[in-house]
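Honest question from a wet-lab person: if I give you the sequences of every part of a complex, can you actually get the arrangement of the whole thing, not just the pieces? Trying it with mine:
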Amino acid sequence: DTEVTQTPKHLVMGMTNKKSLKCEQHMGHRAMYWYKQKAKKPPELMFVYSYEKLSINESVPSRFSPECPNSSLLNLHLHALQPEDSALYLCASSPPGGGERTQYFGPGTRLLVL
Amino acid sequence: AQSVTQLDSQVPVFEEAPVELRCNYSSSVSVYLFWYVQYPNQGLQLLLKYLSGSTLVKGINGFEAEFNKSQTSFHLRKPSVHISDTAEYFCAVILSGAGSYQLTFGKGTKLSVIP
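Yes, you can. This is the full assembly:
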C-alpha cells in the first residue's frame, strides 16, 4: 500500500481565517513533505520533516506553519493567507533509510483564498 | 546542484501511436530518477523509477524508461497510447546520497492524446 491521504480535498478561506490541512500515511515512512503547486507548474518544496523534526524550510512565509504530531501525521496550519497563496497543496512521504528515496504523493488539497 | 530539463512542454499524439517524452538531467554526483504523472485535478502518481541495476525500467500503465548515463537522459516511452494517458508528466531527480530529500522536478510535459 502506497497511500497518502489528505483532507480536505477543497478549501475556500478568507484572508483573516485560520485553517489547517491534514496529511496521513501508514506506510512507516519517516520523511514527510509539503509542496505547493500552481497551475501548469511543477510542485515547489515548502517543508520537510524527518523523524518528526523539521529539517528543511524553503523560506516559506510564517503564515504557513507546519506541524508533525507523530510519524504518521503532518499538518499545515494556515493563517492570514493572501490570494496568491491559492494553489494545490501536496503532501508526500518517503521511506526511512539510506537507499530508498521514492516520494509518494497524496491527492492534494485545492486551496482558494478570497 | 542538480537540474532537470524536459525538452517538450506539449506533446500531441494520436491514439494507439507510440510516444516518447524526453528528459535530461544535470548533476555532478549520482542521482535517482523518477517519472510522475498528474491527471487533471489530482496529485502526482509514481509511474516508474531508476535507483540502480538494469537501465531499462518498466512502470505502470505500459510505460517504460531507459537510463542513459553517458547522455544523462531518462526518456519515457509507451508503444501505444490511450486517451486515458492524457495528463501532465514530470521527470524528477534526487541525489543518491544519504540525507537527501530534495526532489528536483522538470517543468513538465503535457501529453494530449487525440482520438
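Two things worth pointing out. The mean pLDDT of chain B is 94. Residues 4 and 25 of chain B are 4 Å apart (CA to CA).
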